[in-house]
Amino acid sequence: MDLSIEIEGIHFKNPIVTASGPLGFGDELFKYVSPGIIGGFTSKTVTPEPITGNMPPRLVYIQNGLLNSIGLQNPGVDLFIQKTVPFLSKACVRIISVGGENPEDFADVTRKVEKFADMIEVNLSCPNVGGKVIVSDSQLTKEILSGCKAMTKKPLIAKLSLDLDVVRQSQIISDSGIKIVNIGNSIQGARFNFKTGKPFLKHVKGGLSGPAFMPIALWKVYQVKEAFEDLMVIGLGGVTKAEDVMEYAIAGASIVEIGTQTMIDPKSIQKIIEDLKNMLEALKLDFKAIVNVSHRGGFR
Ligand SMILES: Cc1cc2nc3c(=O)[nH]c(=O)nc-3n(C[C@H](O)[C@H](O)[C@H](O)COP(=O)(O)O)c2cc1C
Predict the structure, then answer these.
(1) Which residue(s) pair with 159 in the sheet?
(2) What is the pTM of this model?
(3) Do the Cβ atoms of 224 and 215 come closer than 8 Å?
(4) Cβ distance 155 to 8 under 8 Å?
(5) Quick one: DSSP state of residue 179?
(6) Residue 20's closest CA among 123, 136, 114?
(7) Which of 45, 47, 40, 148 is closest to 94 using CA atoms?
(8) Ligand 1 mutation pick, 186, 201, 208, max ligand atoms within 8 A of CB
(9) Where are the domains of the chain?
(10) I want to staple 259 with a disulfide (CB 3.0 to 4.6 A). Which of 19, 199, 270, 295 is the partner?
(11) pLDDT tens digits for range 67-91
(12) pLDDT the model gives residue 128
């Protein structure tokens, strides 16, 4: 069966894309997995200047997930272009994630990276940098998106926050003329060590990822597709197997990203793609046919 899907004129050979962050800039992943087998690769968020990230400890494994407070660590856009861009594979869709603190930052990074990307993901929702989450401010979000749009004709993806109302956020994204939303970043959370009485993370708060939050993200994908039939949704959160990809597609996701699972076992991506193909063959359906099927009454 056909696993391919097209979004805003970009062809994905299958809907499996790596999420921004856990795999950094891909050098480690591509030792284990050929870029030729995945639909797309999303870079870690790139900012105008280098960021060293938060102080350790900044990762805590929990039951069915991970709490991280990495804090957008990256080499800055100029070093990224010099060191990473020459190795970005064209064997899959190249999505570059851009970040910053204000509209000028986002526009600057977008301008510099856009010719090396097939799509640009605008990170409006990092939970691990100071102050408020950008997408909580509708005016700022609109200014950032219009600044990025002015810098590129490549499709933009707006990455939402799962900590906030996704329908309200999607309204802002849609009003800004953006057609694709990524359902969200990791969810804010904390863990405390009962022996020491201290938080596990230096910054107390981190972002929860992994299977623990999959039902929340699935519900938000469903909600956005119910409210905005025309918005394309990238689903993510806790995917570890092909069945999870099916669930996200059924809820309304056209593309499904995998993050934490790739840190635990990068090779599992290949199995997920093979299993997905087998599951669709058993159903005798192309991938496209199952996208959003929950809003059409399910498999009749
Ligand atoms: C270690 C780590 C680093 C991350 N860094 C970024 C980042 O730089 N930019 C971003 O948009 N999301 C980042 N994320 C969030 C992921 O892209 C994704 O939204 C989240 O982990 C949920 O997916 P998962 O459960 O498959 O990991 C990061 C997640 C983790 C675990």
Answers:
(1) 123, 182
(2) 0.97
(3) no
(4) yes
(5) -
(6) 123
(7) 40
(8) 186
(9) 5-296
(10) 19
(11) 999 889 999 999 999 999 988 899 9
(12) 66
